[in-house]
User: What shape does this take?
Amino acid sequence: MEVRRMGPIGVEVTGVDVRSIDEAAFGRIYRAWLDCNVLCVRDQSLAIGDYLAYSRRFGVIEKHPSKSTRHPDCPEVTLLGANKFDADGKLIMDIYRRGAEGFHTDGAYDEVPFKATQLYALAIPSRGGDTHFASMYAAYDALPPALKQRLEGLVGAYVYGGRRKKTALLNPEDRDRKPALHPIVRVHPETGRKALYFDPGKILRIEGLAADESDALIEELEGCMIQPDAQYRHQWRKGDIVIWDNRCSYHKAAGDYPPEEERIHWRVSIKEAGAPQGATADTM
Ligand SMILES: O=C(O)CCC(=O)C(=O)O
Ligand SMILES: [Fe+2]
Assistant: This one.
């Protein structure tokens, strides 16, 4: 097994088959992932059960609240890029550009946000379709000291659709959940490092501030998310498994590939083991 850093964040693993990784090798993979925010294992050839089994080594899989995009035979898995044309052959932008509206972290709308998101590439277009990543640690570290101090103790309120109520991929009955609250300066439970935990597309307000103050701070924080020297851009190959740590990373899809080509991933959301499951049960 070879483990190779790809830049300030991002690490690549080659020479393994994730179906048969022993504890020691998995320990190395896990540590590299914690250290580098984003990890890619190349050249895998997996059945859906293999993918679930490997994903469960990182934590507990939680079904995505978007029921319409779950895999028909396996609700733990979300299908990215599938069924992107409607009955009239028109491109459905909410599917084609899913995750491409801006840098974000997955699951901030849940009381216990997702630890990780993992994608497995089944079909990759001939050009475009990269995924961009950036470090929340670097974002926090680079904040001016006065802003760091101001943020200490502040809490953000998040819902799936954010201020723009972008809920097209949710069933109507799942659209009105109460906001989840998270500290803006969030300590990573495993590394102990501070991160600027923030998602402009999902935040409603910063608790305890007047509306105009909250909006102004949200705008200011949006400008603080990306440190150019703490980014990684993933160019997909078929057979890649990529996992990112939502507790310390932002990501966004480029959303720029030729729409007539296929770009399909199996996607899972992973929570910390022992964390209560979100209010997204099938009974809702
Ligand atoms: O398709 C991608 O590159 C990433 C989409 C995304 O934001 C996600 O799966 O959470
Ligand atoms: Fe995402």
Observations:
- Residues 139 and 227 are 6 Å apart (CA to CA).
- The pocket of fe (ii) ion (ligand 2) is lined by residues 99, 104, 106, 251 (CB under 6 Å).
